[in-house]
Amino acid sequence: MTLLELFCAMAAMAMVVVALAALANAVQLNYEHGESYGAITQHARVVMERMTRTVNEATTSPSFPGFLILSATDSGYQFPDTLVVWHPSGTPANPTGLPLYGELMVYSWDVNNPNQLLQITNPSDTRTVPAVTDQTDWASNILAMKQSTTATKVVLTNLLRTASVNSGSTLRGVVRFVSRSYPTTMEWSNYQAGTSTWPSLSWVQGTYGSLTGLRQVWVRIEIQLTPTTTTAASNSAALVPTPFFGSAAVYYSLHK
């Protein structure tokens, strides 16, 4: 074999090695990309199952519709990012009235680690919650519960997307809750005040009788999760967050 033939053979071998290395790297990146999105999908599945089951099992009364959504204000924008569910571990203390704070389950992002979505409970708090219309009292007490060092906090996921409204704002976890009810809270309050009639209430599917009617309280859940793997560190496309959606509803009777 001449020297020229040897050089040609070496060049061909080098090209094969480079091609194989590129192929191996592509396979590895593809594997890690799929693994990272598989991980956030599993996180989302567990989170949604936990929250929807809690809502479906919520305790209700004429004074409390099973759950509430609380909003926070940041730079003039409203963020409905806290879900409060009446979910006692046993028989509720006031089955026909308002829950105790110790009977609540709160879902929101961690104020200290906004990439974490938490389930918060404080069973030792025996105070009765305010009326559902007292949003100011609700907001201050639930914020104190989030910041409490004695409340029980379970991390449901640490892959929550974080974002800020502007450069001067702190990071927030990207989670959102939207609810609707039939009859609405305002309609029920108006009926109790005597300013509307029983048939005029927006009964779900028109289901009501002379003494009772069916109420539906529904919640839509949105969370955005961001994958974190070796791929995410080396490939900006892998950092794109993915939204996940879920919903749950409570049905119960209202009495005339």
Task: Describe the protein.
With about 260 residues, this protein is an alpha+beta fold. It has one domain (about 5-160, about 170-255). It contains four helices and ten strands; from the N terminus they run H-E-E-E-E-H-E-E-E-E-H-E-H-E. The protein has helices at about 5-55, 135-145, 185-190, 230-235; strands at about 65-75, 75-85, 105-110, 115-120, 150-155, 160-165, 170-175, 175-180, 210-225, 240-255. A five-stranded antiparallel β-sheet has the order 1-2-3-4-5, with helices on both faces. Strand 3 and strand 4 (about 115-120) form a beta hairpin. The relative contact order is 0.16.
The major β-sheet equals: 5 strands, antiparallel
- Determine the strand fraction and express it as a percent band: 25-35%
Which shape, going by the Cα principal axes? Answer: elongated
| Total individual domains | 1
Helix content: 25-40%
Q: List the uncertain runs.
A: none
Q: End-to-end distance, in Å?
A: 102 Å
SS summary, helix count: 4
